[in-house]
Amino acid sequence: MSALPRNVTTSTELPEVRWLRSSYSTGANNCVETGRPSAGPWAGLLAVRDSKDPDGPALLFSPESWAGFTAGF
Question: Is the model's pTM score more than 0.70?
Fold first, then answer.
């Protein structure tokens, strides 16, 4: 069995995701949004996309990888 890709070419491939923006975000729309796919092959991963391009690509991280990234490791 091959590993799933860690990105999708368009975040519309994740229709069940509720995208959230940081409370530190400004009105300039220059931030990232995160969401958790709850079903399908990416369930349990964290999706990240550019708020300026909501139909654009999304990166997918394991919870451990995302925690390490945000902690600066």
Answer: yes
